[in-house]
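Please annotate this fold before class:
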Amino acid sequence: MFDKSQRSYKTKSRSISSQEAQKVSQQINSQKAIEKVETNPLGSGGKAGEALQNFARSIGEVLIDITALEVNTMVVDRITGAKFIPWQTYRSVYDINEADLHRRNIPQSECDRYLSLRKKLEIEYALITSDSSSPLYDERMLEILSASPDDITLPNPHPSDYDREGKLEIQRVQKLLQNSSFIRALRKVGELKACLDNQKRQVERLKMEHPDRNFKELHEGMNTDMIYAQTIVQLDGDMINRYAKEILDHPQRDLILQLHHESVASGEKQWRGLFEFFLGLIQQVVSQREGGFFDFLRR
């Protein structure tokens, strides 16, 4: 219809006034806009459709995070108030290597704990890059993951040379830190590494205060920066409770357990409220679909 009207306008343009021609042109442009809206009410493939997809994707990622509640109770030597900075945390975990740990005279048991943290991050990286639906997909990672998991290499956050290859490596790290799944794993690994770092600082301080005692004695004498109680509540109702054996002989055992149970009750209440909020939000999005996604966002 539009093409026919346009051809009619062109053949008759010599016999009508400029004002009439302008009026016809406005009608044609209006018809274009109407047809576009009717065929694409939510802007599928346009800004509205893209916004809807991004919004739905964000909601989905958040729901993955809140499908289970985990409460850990620790007694720490100090609270630093340090914030989670993905780039900084990634660099600190990337720098973990066995040669450096041994150079600093860290016992093998502690070395193994540090190395296990980096290995967890390597496995998470491999799982993300071996997923064909991920924008970070690398088909070579499938072979590495199945044949030799020890050969998994994380992108280098501080290459020696900032040439073309160095810049590409930095870009790989930046893209990786935009992945929500990797960020969740990085945050968890960072928290565990902070506990190990605090323990190491305590040992170094105690070494200065008690130079006649060896590391094993100092480490066994510490009772901070460790998880004494852990509770995991899953969406299907399953609950897992774990208690460190050290809590059995702890002088403040009853207080620690009381604080843990109160934290679980408070956390579960907030968790369920947050989950219900997001479910309600999704229902509103679905119910407002016919009315237009942008109309929903303005509310």
Residues 1-21, 23-44 have pLDDT under 50 and may be disordered.
